[in-house]
Automatic annotation (TrEMBL):
Protein name (database record): Angio-associated migratory cell protein
UniProt keyword Cytoplasm present: yes
Entry's localization field: Cytoplasm
Taxonomic classification: Eukaryota, Metazoa, Chordata, Craniata, Vertebrata
Domain named Anaphase-promoting complex subunit 4-like WD40: residues: 288-366
Superkingdom assignment: Eukaryota
Length: 397
């Protein structure tokens, strides 16, 4: 048969219901045909695709103990715990009535917590696959597990930060200003937490006493809402990022601002004609390197800035075509990962400022991602309703 005959035969084949008889065929697709129809490149570097979500997938976390399980939450009001190796569903965290925007495992992977926008938080015991606790707060902004204990922290739109013992539910609240607690992080000592607010202020809380140790506001705070906070490995330094495009380095013991990293725009912006929006920029994500005195700041305009903490100066600017959504450092090297609105994950060498590699496979923007401990895999979630697992380990690294 000629090539034309073959092509005609192929057209008659209905590929739609292939594999329909397999019970979990819908949970993960083959990698070859992803994203072709969406007009973005058909390249797919991923190993596994998890496609049980029916809308944008907002968040992902890996279980810290084994790094074999992922939890994802999405706009479809659903959260799933699944196996990273093959995309196999372990269980669904059911019962949410709003977009699941926060999800994470406890430090020992015993529990997984899921939180939706309306403020319903549920905790599940992973081995038993059953719900052990739930609580409803105001609109949820962020949620984080304690690094050493079964304690959960969450920030809400009314300015409160909540802390619960799990599964007993013993509760404490930390009252911030009357505006959303937009971001938060428990410091590595497990005794303090840093919380950023919509009015530009930042507070360091004593978790045991329930008192605020330091408040940064006015000139010391930010001019616009805080978007992200991070701390270095020993918790001595905190970095805050804001819509005002500044990143502030703060000594956590004294509460004093050590320095301010400002992103100067290189070209003067053309005057805005009526009806046009000014190009907005903001700090979207930041983090400290564990092995060198470096910090990375990711901006909405696509700039990844690597700052040298010892000289408090800009070391490299790595440009992305589109906005950076999140960045993460490798645990034991000077490699920083970024995910962006163009749907790609990129690895950068912070020493040279050069891109090491790039991974594609999503047909929409990446909304969240996680890196496992030995930096061999990255799990991404996207507006294309999918989560993907990429193998990033290279023999020469």
């Amino acid at each position: 048969p000629s090539a034309d005959d073959l092509a005609e035969e192929m057209e008659d084949v209905d590929f739609e219901d292939e594999g329909a008889e397999e019970p979990d065929a819908e949970a993960w697709d083959s990698e070859d045909d992803e994203g072709v129809e969406d007009g973005m490149e058909a390249q797919d570097d991923s190993e596994v695709t998890f496609s049980l979500h029916s809308a944008s997938v907002f968040c992902v976390s890996l279980d810290p103990k084994t790094n074999t399980l992922a939890v994802t939450g999405g706009e479809d009001d659903k959260a799933f715990v699944w196996r990273v190796s093959d995309g196999e569903l372990l269980f669904e965290c059911s019962g949410h009535k709003d977009s699941v925007t926060c999800a994470g495992f406890s430090h020992d992977s015993v529990f997984v917590a899921t939180g939706d926008m309306s403020g319903l938080i549920k905790v599940w015991r992973v081995d038993a696959k059953e719900e052990v606790w739930s609580f409803e707060v105001g609109d949820l902004e962020w949620m984080e597990w304690h690094p050493q204990a079964h304690v959960l922290l969450a920030g809400t739109a009314d300015g409160n930060t909540w802390m619960w013992k799990i599964p007993s539910g013993d509760c404490k609240t930390f009252q911030g200003p009357a505006c959303p607690a937009t971001c938060g992080r428990i410091l590595p000592d497990g005794k303090r937490a840093v919380v950023g607010y919509e009015d530009g202020t930042m507070r360091i809380w004593d978790l045991k006493q329930g008192t605020s140790l330091h408040v940064l506001k006015g000139q010391d705070g930010h001019q616009d809402p805080l978007t992200c906070v991070a701390s270095n490995q020993d918790g001595s330094l905190i970095m805050t990022g804001s819509v005002d495009c500044h990143a502030k380095l703060v000594n956590s013991a004294t509460g004093k601002v050590v320095c301010v990293f400002k992103m100067e725009s290189v070209t003067p912006k053309a005057p805005i004609s009526e009806g046009e929006e000014a190009e907005s920029n903001s700090v979207e994500s930041l983090g400290f390197c564990n092995v060198m005195p470096l910090a990375a700041v990711g901006y909405l305009d696509g700039t990844l800035a690597i700052y040298d903490l010892s000289t408090q100066s800009l070391r490299h600017k790595c440009q992305h075509e589109s906005g950076i959504v999140q960045l993460l450092w490798e645990e034991s090297s000077a490699v920083v990962y970024t995910c962006s609105l163009d749907g790609a994950v990129r690895l950068w060498d912070a020493r040279s400022g050069k891109m090491i590699s790039e991974y594609r496979g999503h047909s929409a923007e990446i909304l969240d991602f996680a890196v496992n401990k030995d930096a061999s895999i990255v799990v991404t979630t996207s507006g294309d309703h999918q989560a993907k697992v990429f193998c990033v380990q290279r023999p020469d690294r």
